Amino acid sequence: MSTPLVTNTIGKPINRVDGVEKVTGKAKYAAEFNVPDLAYGVVISSAITKGKIKSFDASDALSLEGVLQVFTHENRPKLAWFDISYKDQDAPPGAPFRPLHNATIKYSGQPIALVVAETFELARYAATLVRVEYEELTHETDLEANLHKARKPKHGVADLLKPPPPKPRGDFDRVYAEDPNKVAGRYVHSAEHHNPMELFATTVSYEKNGKLTIYDKTQGVTNSILYVTQVFNIPFSDVRVLSPYMGGGFGSGLRPQYQLFMAVMAARELKRSVRVSLTRQQMFTFGHRPATVQQVALGALADGSMNALYHDAMSETSKFEDYTEVVVNWGGQLYPPENVTLDYKLVPLDVYSPLDMRAPGGVTGMSALEVAMDELAYNLGMDPLQLRLKNYTDHDYNQNKPYSSKELRECYRQGAERFGWPSRNMEPRSMKKDHNLIGWGMATGMWEANQMPARAEAVLMVNGKLRVSSATADIGTGTYTIMTQIAADTLGLPISDVLFKLGDTDMPVAPISGGSWTAATVGTAVQTVCQEVGKSLLKLAKNMPDSLFKGAKWEDITFSDKHMRLKNDPNVAVSLQTLVDLNGGKAVRETSTGLPNALKQRNFSRATHSAVFVEVMVDEDLGTVKVTRAVTAVAGGRILNPKTARSQILGGMVWGLSKALEEESVMDHNFGRFMNHNLAEYHVAVNADIHDLDVIFVEEHDDVVNPLGVKGLGEIGIVGMPAAIANAIFHATGRRVRDLPIRLDALL
Amino acid sequence: MNSFTYFRTDAVDTAVRERASEPTAKFIAGGTNLLDLMKENVEHPTHLIDITRLPLTTISDNVDGGLRLGALVTNADTAYNEQVIQRYPLLSQAILAGASPQLRNMATDGGNLLQRTRCYYFYDTATPCNKREPGSGCSALNGYNRIHAILGASNHCIATHPSDMCVALAALEAEVRVTGSNGERTIPFADFHRLPGDTPNIDNTLEPGELITAIDLPARGFPEYFQYLKLRDRASYAFALVSVAAALEMEGGTITAARIALGGVAHKPWRKPEAEAALVGKPANKENFQAAAELLLAGAQGYEHNAFKIELAKRVIVRALGQAAKLEPTA
């Protein structure tokens, strides 16, 4: 039983508790932990895409004074034999890539050697001196050219979180053929790379007893320690992984990246501390958002009732793993047509396995579906928002379950009102200022509201302050802050009396931080363990002489203002300091697990929703697009901290704009290599691209998702943005652009 | 990046002598491009001669009524210089259209002329590139060439010059003052950068070891009718797909002098004297601007991903001329 939370700090725009550390440079990132006698490793990347390494000649590099070793597949240490040892928590079905495994080259930029030297500069120079002879084979990297090889993905545990499309329902072909109103289109999206500001880096501190302390850039220290202990066959007790801060993740840190392998290998072989940091170019040599080709067809009756939905996607994966994401399922969850066919296939190519990237699959699929919805609205001569409302449902027909909560209708209403949508003239090219055509577009966003199991520890210390910890991550989202708030409110303490720590494998285990589940997952664990501390405090209270809490049950008490109180008589109170003083000079310490309430959750579908409204100005002659304003209204359950929450949504909106108009990892298929591998040529939105952005959080109560009622906000901000922009461009110009990114040449 | 030795002096002649003594040396000023290229293993100087202390840091009047920009004046100090803003606003506008404030604070005017192409293949040592490694081939020709040249290219190289500042300097007919072992000389801006031909490894007409000491702006600065218009894939911090430096002199509605230079389309800022001459004596209107645009783009050749630049360039020229003539809003 849970006692209702007295929300003192939850729901308030508390500043980030780690803000000062970050802006003063005190917050340390993986490549900033300086340990004595540190050696530096620089990775050599394959210049070819497919084939074999015939030979290495490292003699020039090794002849330099201060170069310690050049590690290759030829001289690497013995490693785990079986694929299973290389599987991490986010590994798709298949055989994970093994760095320095053998002479085979599987993709361009594959790490093929590590040069370790006394200084970074020396290692970098020595790396240029290593000569590599290759035997090249013909590669296949072009998705469009290999679509005929598309096949169903292999099944695996990944299916649990990323369910394959449901079986067709009804008879799409027949109904669609007869529909009076229908649209069909093909949507091509480019590959993208996460490109967090912080480069992937690992500093391994080689301790005197041979134990390893590893500072890693990761979205889950547990994932890193499992990988290291399995691959190198080291006992858990000999390894500790820390990642207190992360300079952006976006999914790129959901799998251990190869610098972790390299740094650990070198440290163990050289028996000294080693740091390996990737270059920006090397940030394009592991997971990415896959290129996709989608087809969407929608059919409706003349009144706008949708009765037919088709959505298929073909997506690239590597030739060694079947990376999947949920691209095509969304329409079947969001809308109620009775005739639905969804299909998802993979095209294995000579690339590295794609990797979850903010709203993986969701922003891809919704960017096609919601453009098709706009097209259908125009086909019907119906306002695009009215079409969504006409086809509104509180039921998820894919799972055939009601939503635990779905305040999307309120998102539409509040978003439309704030934006001024009702005054929209539906006619394309109906608004103009000087050379600029002005357009308004809207789209729906959707993401899952998941929860995982996680553990946390809470310690009410003898000085009355609370220390709470869990081996989760704060990838910039505000985990430190919201966990501090949850802990503070659960035990009625001010924020300043609570210290929340994360990112250390010595702490209780938590899953990788992704999928928008950290607030729900770790939040529940933190709430649960603080309640356990509260229960221990109640026992101590009962044992006080003449205790007024003697007959009190857990349900009867509440915490506020540093005191435990009787709910029905708040003046009956005892301070937490008094209670911990009764504990024989010891802190009150509890460890506990926060578990999803499967019994409660199984009867419902759980999701966050958003409605996005966008205004663009398109230069009629020059094709340039400026997103002059955008409003996103989000239904994401309880908002723990409107300030960090707003930042999350703003970040998603900015990225959505970036995805719609700018981002593309360009591969030259002659080389099978991403060519714009730097931040000058891989364009992400800059300040000058961003104008008026507005965020609304709609009230949404949900006691199914978890006791806190939180759904997570990491992904939802990006999901609807690209489609809303594409739809606004249509309204401005009358041109329907289905491929992303939409650059000026598409509009000339 | 290879190891290199480092030398600093505060005298121009010492710097030039030092450079002459080591053929694989390079001058370094702001380093905003050279250091990147060294880190990417594209440039490998064995000796760096730091010229940031040379007395070339002032903007001063020339006797002919023009303005002299010391080679080591930063891009930022140039763009915000009162004289430049008053007399050569086109130059100020062009500089501020490039890079970021941080880069403009470091980058020098002389260095701006010497920045190298942003061609993806030039930067990636795993791919052939005639500019980086003569004779290895041009990967862009049949590769990804969205940002590449449509004018004056060759089968050996289709790279573009990335500068914004240089496009304005070309339109203003600046002169580049250089000094070397053989003494001082002045290079007209149109002759400073060169087309790739079959030696795309050579970007400009500097003799080995020559040092840029100043950029001379002529008295005629087109302060009344001008526009630098840059089109790119995001609103800031991106190199030009196409840019236009347009400068006019007008009497009534009639054009009495015209300069048009294009950026992002060729191995050097692109001018066509006949296109400019065709405007003189004509009224400033869209038809005449369009005719000039056609002349400027004559002979343009697109490749797989950049053919759109031909039409785009024409439209940007028409717009920029219209804005320069104050017939169109500049917002």
From TrEMBL, chain A:
Superkingdom of source: Bacteria
Pfam families in UniProt: Ald_Xan_dh_C, MoCoBD_1, MoCoBD_2
Sample GO molecular function, one term: iron ion binding
Region (Disordered): 154-173
Coiled-coil segments: none
Family matches, as InterPro entries: Ald_Oxase/Xan_DH_a/b, Ald_Oxase/Xan_DH_a/b_sf, Ald_Oxase/xanthine_DH-like, AldOxase/xan_DH_MoCoBD1, AldOxase/xan_DH_MoCoBD2, AldOxase/xan_DH_Mopterin-bd_sf
Start and end residues of each Aldehyde oxidase/xanthine dehydrogenase a/b hammerhead domain: 24-138
SUPFAM superfamilies for this protein: CO dehydrogenase molybdoprotein N-domain-like, Molybdenum cofactor-binding domain
SMART domains: Ald_Xan_dh_C
PANTHER family with a match to the protein in the record: DEHYDROGENASE, XANTHINE DEHYDROGENASE
Protein name according to UniProt: Xanthine dehydrogenase YagR molybdenum-binding subunit
Species assigned in the record: Spirosoma fluviale
UniProtKB/TrEMBL annotation, chain B:
UniProt keyword terms in alphabetical order: FAD, Flavoprotein
Keyword flag Flavoprotein: yes
Superkingdom classification of source: Bacteria
Keyword Flavoprotein included in the entry's annotation: yes
Family annotation (InterPro entries): CO_DH_flav_C, CO_DH_flav_C_dom_sf, Diverse_Substr_Oxidored, FAD-bd_PCMH, FAD-bd_PCMH-like_sf, FAD-bd_PCMH_sub1, FAD-bd_PCMH_sub2, Mopterin_DH_FAD-bd
Location of the FAD-binding PCMH-type domain: 1-222
GO MF terms held by the record: FAD binding; oxidoreductase activity
Pfam annotation, one family: CO_deh_flav_C
Protein name (Swiss-Prot/TrEMBL): Xanthine dehydrogenase YagS FAD-binding subunit
